[in-house]
Design a protein that fits this description.
By secondary structure, the protein is α+β, with helices and mostly antiparallel strands. It has a single domain, classed as YaeB-like fold. Helices cover 40% and strands 26% of the residues. The protein contains four helices and seven strands, in the order E-H-H-E-E-E-E-E-E-H-H. The protein has a five-stranded mixed β-sheet. A two-stranded antiparallel sheet has the order 3-4. Strand 6 and strand 7 form a beta hairpin. The longest helix is centred in the last third of the chain and has 23 residues.
């Protein structure tokens, strides 16, 4: 991903894995996420500001961008933030995940070291649910009859 002059793009180290997992769930989600991240990096789109959400942690310096499969439900979010480094604007992707149970916000807060102690159980529960659902999807895919 590139960015125009005066703007840098970077991603949390786990974002690449987020995107790969999306592709395992549904390749269309991966394609959509990568396209949106490119647009964010280029400054062609912008998300909505997040607030200090007491339960999820302080994400008031972050933004959310909604997406899903074209023509389908808006099920996922990209959480990112912008930082200033001298005269350079840095756009940093923090998490690319599903919205259900606020998982993407819990994950972003966890990655930024801002997850409140009161939300740790919810984060672990949501994380285990996502892992179980993805395991079921992969198992069903492997058991599909081939033509």
């Amino acid at each position: 991903m590139s960015a125009p002059a005066g703007r840098k793009w970077r991603a949390h180290p786990a974002v690449e894995k987020d995107i790969e997992r999306l592709g395992e769930d549904d390749p269309r989600l991966k394609v959509r996420a990568v396209a949106l991240l490119d647009l964010l990096a280029d400054g062609k789109v912008a998300g909505e500001e997040l607030k200090d959400m007491a339960f999820y942690g302080d994400l008031s310096d972050c933004f959310k961008f909604y997406f899903g499969i074209t023509g389908g439900a808006i099920t996922h979010r990209i959480v990112y933030r912008t930082l200033a480094d001298g005269g350079i604007e840095i756009v940093e992707a923090i998490a690319v995940e599903e919205r259900e149970e606020g998982y993407v916000y819990l994950l972003a807060s966890h990655r930024l070291g801002r997850l409140p102690d009161t939300a740790k159980k919810a984060f672990n529960r949501a994380h285990q649910k996502v892992i179980a659902r993805r395991g079921a999807i992969r198992k069903a895919f492997r058991q599909r009859p081939t033509k």
